[in-house]
Amino acid sequence: MTGWHTASAPGKFVILGEHSVVYGKPAVVLAADRRITCGVRRGKRNLLNGEPIEFSRQPHFRYLTRNLRHAVEFVTRSDIPTGAGLGSSAALAASIALALEDMAGNDPDERKLVDEAYGAELAAQGNGSPMDASACVHGGGIGVNIPGTEKRGLWRISRNGRVWNVSDVDVPSMTFVVGNTGVKAPTGPQVDKVRRFVGRSNFASEMIEEIGNVTLSGYDALQRGDVEALGRMMTTDHKLLSILGVSCKELNKLVNAALPYSYGAKLTGSGGGGCMVALTDEPEKVASVITARGGVAYVMGAGSQGARIERSVPDGPVFDIPGFVRPEAER
Ligand code: PMV
């Protein structure tokens, strides 16, 4: 494809600390081996996958093209289900941001990309931490606000009095199975729900604190390669998130089904639907029990490469991307 500038970025799954990270507590997130690829070129009209871009419905594109003085055409391809807590929004933002940088002739700069991707995330969901944007830009394993990781520090981002110190963390070889409930649950309302709960109850603030403690124990286990202890912390985290009100019966059903064959299991992302993740040595078994309970299972490799330049947008089946439903999507 001539004139195209193409980039991709991985999705992510949170193994510890979602929601509490919004309040500046620690979190651990891994880049997934599923990606969004985005191609961009100068055009006569603003087009997205051949359709006029509806900027009012596509906050990522609106935000990231805000400084352009000419029309652009985008094409996208995604392996990441949307609205499932797998970082489709941040991966979309990171891939668009890098493709646009390439079109502008700029050398890729992760810090700039993460600011762009986080800005697009905020434009799309209104609130939240830079955790997803960091994972989708940098890839690998990401720790947020983990004491002792300063030597591997990547960036410090602050907003509304909260500070997030983001660092690179080692990811030992592990197998995860992600189970998608198929229940769509956008991030913004879940984050708002927790904010209201925290605003009116000390009990909710204590849960946030407790998730922070569990995350630090789980991080230590991860660094020791102790999958049993890490799994236990993931399951404890799920219980705390349930008390916070962000699980649902479909998520609990998949977590309970996976647990007998896993070191641990929990919801991943903002919850209310979307996905759970299990840490296991028996991925086929876990995938089959998830499928038997009505979920869609993905055996997931962790620690994938971050945002990168690609030669082209591959053909093949696609998922929708946030804000864009394909007229004839193959799913
Ligand atoms: O559901 P996702 O993939 O957008 O994950 C959101 C993680 C939260 O901690 C709930 C929000 C955030 O921005 O950190």
As a percent range, the share of strand residues is 15-25%
Distance between the termini: 25 Å
Total domain modules: 1
Oligomer: single chain
Question: What Rg is obtained from the alpha carbons, in whole angstroms?
Answer: 19 Å
Per DSSP, the total helix count is 9
- Any idea what the shape is? globular
In short:
With 331 residues, this protein is of the alpha+beta class. Helix content is 37%, strand content 24%. Bound molecules: (3R)-3-hydroxy-3-methyl-5-(phosphonooxy)pentanoic acid (PMV).
SSE layout and pairing:
Blueprint: E1 5-16, E2 27-42, E3 47-48, E4 51-52, H1 59-64, E5 72-78, H2 88-103, H3 110-125, H4 131-138, E6 141-144, E7 153-159, E8 162-169, E9 176-180, H5 187-200, H6 202-224, H7 227-244, H8 249-258, E10 264-268, E11 275-279, H9 283-292, E12 296-300, E13 308-310
Parallel strand pairs: 3-5
Antiparallel strand pairs: 1-2, 1-13, 2-5, 2-6, 3-4, 6-8, 7-8, 9-11, 9-12, 10-11
Helix pairs in contact: 2-3, 2-4, 3-4, 5-6, 6-7
Bound molecules: (3R)-3-hydroxy-3-methyl-5-(phosphonooxy)pentanoic acid (PMV).
